[in-house]
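An instance follows:
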Amino acid sequence: MQPLRGDWIARLEDVVLSTSAPAVLVAHSLGCMLVAAWASHSRNTHRVKAALLVAPGDVAQEALRPVLASWSPIPLQTLPFKSTLVASQDDPYCSFARAQDFASAWGATLVDAGAAGHINADSGLGDWPQGQALLKQLIHS
């Protein structure tokens, strides 16, 4: 119920180091913050080809701060790999304007998903063909 950023960073580092093939990261919500935090500390970012960042959760939101205290500050530096950030116009966990700020800071291509909520199962997107297409673009770029 209170995920710790350091634990998540260590786990992502282990996973990235466990493969010799270039990784393509796919992250949702708090996972987007994980990718940015990991990239700001890791010496192994060269092992990542690209990242698809979906519906970033804004850990600076007042309601989330007590639960996600270890996730601040949010790293706002250019990611050292190609990235695409998909954001919704009506995400309850991150305003579209804030998602635009993240995309700009991280050097990510921003994709406007329209009114898609938190871009999760509750959003009714099914298999989400748009997301699959974006992932294929990143894999083959």
